[in-house]
Amino acid sequence: QEFDKDRALLMAGVSHDLRTPLTRIRLATEMMSATEDYLKDGIVADIDDMNAIIDQFMDYIRHHRQEDLELDDLNTVINEVVMAESNQPRTITSTLDEKLPLIPLRTVAIKRVISNLLGNALRYSDSDIEVKCGYNKKRKRVYCSVLDRGPGIPSKDVERLFQPFTQGDIARGGEGSGLGLAIIKRIVDMHHGDVELVNREGGGLAATIYLPLK
Predict the structure, then answer these.
(1) According to the model, what pLDDT value does residue 170 have?
(2) Dihedral sign (CA 168, 169, 170, 174)
(3) Mean pLDDT for back-to-back runs of 10 residues, the chain (214 residues)
(4) Are strands 129-136 and 92-95 parallel, antiparallel or unpaired?
(5) Among 60, 131, 175, 185, which residue's Cβ finds the most Cβ atoms within 10 Å?
(6) Burial 71-101 (b: 16+ CB within 10 A, else e)
(7) How far apart are the C-alpha atoms of 14 and 54, rounded to whole Å?
(8) Per-residue pLDDT, 151
(9) Collapsing DSSP states into helix, strand and coil, what is residue 1?
């Protein structure tokens, strides 16, 4: 049943998201001439869009279920993601808690979660971004927060943010498939954790994942 559900989701996604770029490719190729190289650039861009969409569909279906849980340091994971974004023309700071315990992670999957949240913050805000982690004593969970000063999210939209194919500013999940936050939630659920989106006082969004100690 789960396989059939995933297969139906994939087929719906392909139909939903690839139709527009495929149409653009067809129109562009019909209009091309030897002197119209700029149309070729458009085709390349559409191909890149399709590849990105397909990657997200496959990630949503797989959601890294093949990776084993291993004890790892969330600080190290955050550092690697922030370093990978160090070429951005924006300041991204990380505030780490060096006393964090090791926790069971599917490391590649959690890197994708933090990278997606950071990508959303870069896309939907213009100022500096902070990534921080710590231990929440009340929840007895380790957390990682990505903080931006963008427009935040209307409270009426929060409940449906993590639904597949929620697109645009509502999803804050990136252009294309509308699966960005759905992937994040599925990976965090797989870790028996939680995702929380809260509008910050003074503007912006705090996107936080909470992960259990064991």
Answers:
(1) 47
(2) positive
(3) 73 70 78 75 74 67 67 94 86 93 90 90 91 92 95 77 57 51 86 93 93 92
(4) parallel
(5) 131
(6) eebbbebbeebbeeeeeeeeebebebeeebe
(7) 8
(8) 87
(9) coil
Of 46, 43, 57, the residue nearest 9 (C-alpha) = 57
Q: The whole model's pTM is what?
A: 0.69
Instruction: Locate 108 and state its tokens.
Output: 């590649």
What is the end-to-end Cα distance of the chain in Å, rounded? 29
On the 0-12 / 13-18 / 19+ scale of CB atoms within 10 A, 138 is exposed
DSSP 64: T
CA distances from 203 to 23, 91, 110, 144, 198 (A): 39, 18, 26, 19, 10
Angstrom distance (rounded) from CA 209 to CA 43: 37
Query: What is the DSSP code string of 110-178?
Result: HHHHHHHHHHHHHHH-SS-EEEEEEEETTTTEEEEEEE--S----GGGGGGTTSTT--HHHHTS-SSSS
pLDDT of residue 199: 92
